[in-house]
Amino acid sequence: MVFCLRVMQVESEYLPLYKNHGIRLTTWSPLAFGVLTGKYNSGVPPDSIFALENYKNLSSQSLVDDVLKKVRKLQPIADELDVPMFQLAIAWCAANCHTLPG
């Protein structure tokens, strides 16, 4: 879920850190805990990470709906490239010279 919320920071806000200090970012959960695989399109599955007690605060319905709304805006890009959403997310990480997939 964090993927959707932090892309602008990685792309622009952190740019001075990359340029001035040679810092690179290790992406944690580049598939956003499964959000970019379509796993949560119908809600939170009982066997998912967001069903665990420690993560339930991240899986409120309003938050899930908000994130899915943002993720769905990426679908036309994936469709145009003829790739699944998860492949688009991994490709973004691999193509961004400031990230190291974790």
TrEMBL record:
Keyword NADP carried by entry = yes
Q: Pfam families from the entry?
A: Aldo_ket_red
Name-wise, this protein is NADP-dependent oxidoreductase domain-containing protein
In this protein, which residues make up the domain named NADP-dependent oxidoreductase?
A: 8-94
Q: Which Gene3D superfamilies does this UniProt record tie to the protein?
A: NADP-dependent oxidoreductase domain (3.20.20.100)
Q: Which PANTHER family match?
A: HYPERKINETIC, ISOFORM M
List the keywords (alphabetical): NADP, Oxidoreductase
> Is NADP one of the keywords?
yes
- What is stated as this protein's family in its record? Belongs to the shaker potassium channel beta subunit family.
GO MF annotations, alphabetized: oxidoreductase activity
